[in-house]
Design brief:
This protein has helices at 12-23, 68-76, and strands at 2-5, 27-33, 36-42, 47-53, 56-59. A five-stranded antiparallel β-sheet has the order 1-5-4-3-2, with helices on one face. It is α+β, with helices and mostly antiparallel strands and 82 residues long. It contains two helices and five strands.
Length: 82
């Protein structure tokens, strides 16, 4: 399970993949609250629900490092600039 905090700086590859996910319209905000968001991300190898609770973002994908799904979710909810 990958996780990231909102202050983490992703690699250029992860950032580019997150932007590609968003450009393809593969991110859908399914829940939005002041301290919690949930975003359905259609990744290259599966669909994941990414959850942000406070500064912590988790994704159920098998990535060990912060993933493009988590970054795409933060951008989709306006919690992080592209």
């Amino acid at each position: 399970m990958a996780s990231v905090t909102r202050t983490h700086r992703p690699s250029a590859r992860v950032h580019a993949k997150a932007l590609r996910i968003l450009a393809a319209g593969r991110a859908e905000v399914i829940d939005r609250q002041p301290h919690r968001d949930a975003v359905r991300i259609e990744g290259d190898h599966g669909t994941y629900v990414v959850v942000r609770e406070g500064p912590q973002v988790t994704c159920p994908c098998p990535a060990i490092r912060p993933c493009s799904h988590a970054l795409a979710a933060l951008i989709a909810t306006g919690r992080r600039r592209p």
